[in-house]
């Protein structure tokens, strides 16, 4: 089992927005949905775009390149042209610090 790594402060992640971070050199996107923090890989599985530059819409992240969408909670692709799910990461928040672990 991998260790937890500090990646951001919870205040860094705007409500219904994104925040780019890294986990062991890997690009990660953090999301704040109704006060709960989620994390996915930051690169779209279709167009190689940074999802942290995308748009959060009703619990989904919309890719800024081709408008494909992914469920932020599960990473599942939910709109064409995206068909491959995003990697997601376990998240914990303690004392205002966001911690991630390699899945």
Describe what this molecule looks like in 3D:
This protein has 103 residues and is an all-beta fold. The chain has a single domain (4-101), classed as 3-layer Sandwich (Rieske Iron-sulfur Protein), CATH 2.102.10.10. Helices cover 0% and strands 46% of the residues. The strands form 3 sheets. It has a 4-stranded antiparallel β-sheet, with no helix packed on it. It starts with a strand and ends with a strand. The mean pLDDT is 94.
Shape: globular
Let me know the average pLDDT: 94
* Tally of helical runs: 0
Number of domains: 1
Share of residues in helices: under 10%
Q: Tell me the span between the first and last alpha carbons.
A: 8 Å
Radius of gyration: 13 Å
The CATH class name reads: Mainly Beta
Q: How would you spell out the order of helices and strands?
A: EEEEEEEEEE
In the CATH hierarchy, what is the architecture at level 2?
Answer: 3-layer Sandwich
Please state the structural category: mainly beta
Beta-strand level of the residues, as a percent range?
over 45%
Q: Describe the sheet with the most strands.
A: 4 strands, antiparallel
- At the third CATH level, what is the topology name? Rieske Iron-sulfur Protein
Strand order of the largest sheet: 5-6-7-8
Uncertain runs: none
Provide the CATH superfamily: Rieske [2Fe-2S] iron-sulphur domain
Record field, number of beta strands: 10
Could you provide a short overview of the structure?
With 103 residues, the protein is mainly beta. It has strands spanning 4-9, 18-23, 26-33, 36-41, 55-57, 60-62, 69-71, 77-79, 91-94, 97-101. It has a single domain, classed as Rieske Iron-sulfur Protein, CATH 2.102.10.10.
């Amino acid at each position: 089992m991998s260790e937890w790594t500090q990646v951001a402060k919870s205040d860094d992640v705007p409500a219904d927005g994104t925040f780019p971070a890294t986990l062991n050199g890997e690009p990660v996107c953090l999301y704040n949905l109704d006060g709960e923090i989620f994390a996915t890989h930051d690169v779209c599985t279709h167009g190689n775009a940074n999802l942290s530059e995308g748009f959060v819409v009703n619990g989904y992240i919309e890719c800024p390149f081709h408008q494909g969408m992914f469920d932020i909670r599960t990473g599942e692709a939910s709109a064409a042209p995206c068909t491959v799910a995003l990697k997601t990461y376990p998240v914990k928040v303690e004392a205002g610090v966001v911690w991630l672990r390699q899945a």
